[in-house]
Amino acid sequence: MLYLPKPSQYVWIVPITSILGRLPLVPAGQTGTIPHSMHARQQACFEYGECDKADEPGTGSLVFHINSWAMVFPSDHPVLRQ
Fold this sequence. Notes:
The chain is largely without helices or strands. It is 11% helix and 11% strand.
């Protein structure tokens, strides 16, 4: 899982050789944000993130699953013409 830091944004520097391409990301859960139920574990699980406010779903940091299944198939395969 990946999440977007909130309220402050952070930038991590990585070597260009570590970048494989775009990741196929899918929003996690019903709202696509860190649920309020994770509030007690926020520091341990989402150090730079923010959980949803109580009774306000969708107000926290965005959370995504990496769709590893989609990474198996190339997106630049040749088009078959008949």
